[in-house]
Amino acid sequence: MHSYRPAPVLEALGVCFEDEQLYRALLARPESTTTDLTRDTGWPATRVGRHLKSLLSLGLATRTSGRPAVYVPAVPEAAVELLALRKQAAILEARLGASVLSSEFRRQDSFTVIRGTEAVAQRFYQAQQSARTEVLVLDRPPYVVLPVEPRRAHGVSYRTIYDMASLSEPGDLVAARSAGCRILRDVPLKLVLMDRRTGLLPTTPDVIVELGPSSLLDALLRLFELLWQQASPLSPSAPEGPLSGEDQQLLALAAAGLTDQAIARRLGVAQRTVERRMQRILRALDATTRFQAGLRAGQRGLLA
């Protein structure tokens, strides 16, 4: 018999192949001792004894109380039905466990999904009005609702990182400068964070996920701070030095990767004016490239 290996049929019910082999041997000899099964399978007695214990625990066999013990196989239909019921019970237990885990997840990482353009716009407005200390914004198009505008309330500070595509008009740039914000190429997502306790994360144009205190909110806060360090300031704060405020603004845009044509459009001046100012900036900073000029301006605190 040891040379015959039939295909397993009970694996899906949690019965290993060797257990099934011994069960088949027991079906072939319905009343067998350990010696009989050792001879029929060609296995060592210890191996037969180990798998007999497994068959007993699975309900695939029973044993008599006499000596030597005689093992009797369970009727296949009844045995399989019992195994299937146990499997269903295990699945049900797992589903109940998943419900418990989901409840724990919702308690830890609380979130609400808000749908509809009007509901989304209203929630953005309400969240902004409820802020008490700080609002952090990642801003990028397309816009279904109006971008978050700084609310001039006492004690509420705003920090916004604009995607370059957000500042397509000179007026946009003026507003960004007055808000003391920064610009970054390819802002990865839209995000509004209020008081470090609430986050609004748009997932589609008319759907946002509102996050409460959670590990995900903490991760988004860390992402914002990392992007803030990478972004280029738009509001110069160091008027001293060889650069005027306009020159600092121009260099910040150049450091962010904008072309002369794009800078001219955002500043509302001619491209030749931008080129002429850039040459003056390079001379003032004793730099030969824009990268070198941006680096030296940053070292002197002219862009921060």
Automatic annotation (TrEMBL):
UniProt cross-references to SMART domains, sorted A to Z: HTH_LUXR
Superkingdom assignment: Bacteria
Molecular function terms from GO: DNA binding
SUPFAM superfamilies: C-terminal effector domain of the bipartite response regulators (SSF46894), Winged helix' DNA-binding domain (SSF46785)
One of the GO BP terms on file: regulation of DNA-templated transcription
A Pfam family of this chain: GerE
HTH luxR-type domain mapped to chain residues: 236-301
Gene3D superfamilies according to UniProt: Winged helix-like DNA-binding domain superfamily/Winged helix DNA-binding domain (1.10.10.10)
Protein name from the UniProt record: Transcriptional regulator TrmB
